[in-house]
């Protein structure tokens, strides 16, 4: 069983969107997938309530203290891929998730106010024993080169950066409202293509 935790300090940076998108991409390749929501707000849990009942995606809302147990259960049940969605300003919760996951993805908007929060994420990763991690530039403006500037800055600061950028695409929020992902709402759209590329990239690393 492979596992990925999606963490970042800032709310609204795209943790849930990315976790949902990657889980659904994995499911569509035929993997048995569990999506674990550690956020008390349960936005991924509520998103799954909006999905059709026949869905093959297992979404579990859990307090972080039960994460080891939930992961064990997933393994026993033959789950191939677990994605862990975490709350913002998570501190200990993010540390727990980062300790237990094989790999960490850190979605961040390419703005200084978001990028500044990465020092705290670095502290979290250090406390979790430095699991393999990379930053995902999300919600980047389609116009301009803000994503490139952010990438250069991140690399200078010593962060690993995913080669795939998720640009600002309305399909992500439109799909979320319906309990879907962009890939399900508009499979050939740009948002869908970017998420699929991200999935292919990240799954290969696991
Ligand atoms: N790349 C994107 N393009 C457009 N909207 C996005 C993108 N990523 C996230 N969003 C939207 O931004 C809002 C916050 O995203 P969310 O994934 O819930 O963030 P978090 O879980 O980090 O708080 C949601 O409405 C989501 O649909
Ligand atoms: Mg969220």
What does it look like?
This protein has 206 residues and is of the alpha/beta class. It has one domain (2-205): 3-Layer(aba) Sandwich (Rossmann fold), CATH 3.40.50.300. The protein is built from ten helices and seven strands. The chain has a seven-stranded parallel β-sheet, with helices on both faces. It is globular. It binds adenosine-5'-diphosphate and magnesium ion. Adenosine-5'-diphosphate binds at residues 11-17, 43, 88, 138-139, 166, 168-169, 172-173, 176. Magnesium ion is lined by residues 15-16, 39, 43.
Supply the key terms.
206 residues, alpha/beta, Rossmann fold, seven-stranded parallel sheet, binds adenosine-5'-diphosphate, binds magnesium ion
Q: What is the chain-wise order of helices and strands?
A: EHEHEHEHEHHEHEHHH
How much β-strand is present in the residues?
A: 15-25%
The Cα radius of gyration reads 16 Å
Major beta sheet summary: 7 strands, parallel
CATH architecture: 3-Layer(aba) Sandwich
Placed side by side, the strands forming the largest sheet appear as 3-2-4-1-5-6-7
Q: Give the overall shape.
A: globular
Please state the average pLDDT score: 96
CATH topology: Rossmann fold
Extended strand count? 7
Integer tally of domains:
1
């Amino acid at each position: 069983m492979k596992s990925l935790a999606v963490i970042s300090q800032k709310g609204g940076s795209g943790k849930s969107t990315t976790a949902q998108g990657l889980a659904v991409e994995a499911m569509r390749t035929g993997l048995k997938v569990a999506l674990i929501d550690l956020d008390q707000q349960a936005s991924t849990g509520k998103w799954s309530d909006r999905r059709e009942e026949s869905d093959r995606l297992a979404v579990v809302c859990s307090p972080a203290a039960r994460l080891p147990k939930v992961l064990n259960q997933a393994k026993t049940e033959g789950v191939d891929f677990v994605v862990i969605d975490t709350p913002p300003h998570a501190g200990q919760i993010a540390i727990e998730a980062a300790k237990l996951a094989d790999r960490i993805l850190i979605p961040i908007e390419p703005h200084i106010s978001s990028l500044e929060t990465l020092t705290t994420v670095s502290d979290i990763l250090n406390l979790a024993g430095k699991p393999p991690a990379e930053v995902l530039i999300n919600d980047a403006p389609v116009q301009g080169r803000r994503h490139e500037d952010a990438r250069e800055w991140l690399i200078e600061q010593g962060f690993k950066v995913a080669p795939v950028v998720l640009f600002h695409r309305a399909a992500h929020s439109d799909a979320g409202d319906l309990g879907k992902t962009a890939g399900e709402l508009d499979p050939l759209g740009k948002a869908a293509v970017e998420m699929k590329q991200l999935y292919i990239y990240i799954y290969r690393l696991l």
